[in-house]
Amino acid sequence: MAVYKTNALVLRRIPLGEKDKIVTLFTREYGKLNAVAKGARRTTSRLAGATEPLMLLRALLAEGMNLDILTQCEIRESFSHLRSDFGLILRATYACELLDKLTVERDPSPEAFDLLLSTLYVLQRAVEPDAALHAFELQFLAQIGYEPRLDACARCGKDLADGEGAGFSASRGGLLCGPCADATDDTLNLSPAAARMMIRLLNEEDAKALARIEMTPTEREEIARVLRAHLRFRLERDVKSTEFLDAHRLGAMNLTPDAGT
Description:
By secondary structure, the chain is of the alpha+beta class. The protein is 38% helix and 20% strand. The model has no long low-confidence stretch (mean pLDDT 95).
């Protein structure tokens, strides 16, 4: 039975029988994979805590017939500050779910791994956590070719200098000029300031600079709304954890959801 080592982030886990778990790992070297963690539901198991979502591991796996087996692992980072804050857990869980939904198994993507890992670190110290999360959304969408068009009208192609559009269309996939905004049924309001912020978040690669970004309430609300519409149109459904995150932003919930479901 061949064994291999890899750096891995735990995206989610589900119970398997009374003692085991199936964990979904996103690895830098091999992409997304599912593995059985035998005995990990036992509180005395060394795999118990390590196989919870949002753990960064150095994992040893053995190839199996259907699923590989997680035999050993070393926790490299547990993101304790992130775990102590309800809002940060929700945002991190959403980022993991989005990556899970938009990747296929065994398709290596070191850029996506690095982006998610960087986002988890930035979330722990960000002045504006939603800026870090929206940067992740935009940059990850750019990696897979789904980023919204922000430099020109997505309908007619007219150049839009510095985000000076008149709205945003999910069906068209980006900013719209005035005439096209009026002619498009699903146009959402997106102010030039919010559009400029999206451009900044899409292009910001420095983690320290990203952690210092601040947004106005209007920018925060508009960007969240258009990105949700953009993703819903492409996925043909909402990301499940969006509902929890929206409720938290509105102050409508105070109970932590199970990050592994």
